[in-house]
Prior knowledge:
It is built from 8 helices and 6 strands. It has 238 residues and is of the alpha+beta class. The chain has a 4-stranded antiparallel sheet, covered by helices on one side. It has a two-stranded antiparallel ribbon with strand order 1-2. The longest helix has 29 residues, at 125-153. The protein is elongated and about 80 Å long. Keywords: Cell membrane, Membrane, Transmembrane, Transmembrane helix.
Amino acid sequence: MSFFTDDMLTSTIRLLVIVLLSGLIGIEREVKNHPAGLRTHIVVGVGSCMLTLVSLFGFEDYIRSHEDIRGFDPSRIPSYIISGIGFLGAGTILVQGGITVKGLTTAASIWVVAGIGIVVGIGMYYEAVLATIIIITTLFFLNRFEKFYKKKVDTKDNLLLVITLSKGEGHVKRINSELSSQEIEISQYNLEEDKTGEEGIMKYTLSLSMNPKTNLSEVLENLQDMSFITSVNINKRT
């Protein structure tokens, strides 16, 4: 009897196909600086494919050996686990300034680990090991690949600019005009009241793309010279 069964071959093909398809979508999202990129898409894709395989092959032996049982669904509890674990994963996601998201890959890995636990619990060891190898490879090695192709595709620096300013007509327009004059592109922005400071102070968060040759010090000095701006903070996005 061969160890490698037809079901194992089917699982291997389907898991590898979802790695390819979800990876292609993830690359497109990564290039456009969206929060969920290559690794997140692959982890979620592999997890959902694996759980679908559970529903197709995981309960066949149980159903055959318990033909007398009616009104019992062995997949009911796993479905609750997958729904509930999403709340735990949501706790790892951080939003900065309303535009920058961190922790999506961690949330995805928590969700897929719950799925692996279900797969092991019902005895589908091969599928669990294969999915784990794929996910570990994704998380460890594709991080370098992400950085490599992002450098090839995007030659500009990506920055996160946080400005606190007094509320007033035309203030945001003046900031945007200054950035535009320096050929700095604004890809995302968020304007909200600064709840940590005094009343009438706004927090303006911008995601920027700029040429590495742009004089960043000059840009910061020009912004700080504006009387309505109280603080300027800038960080390089990774």
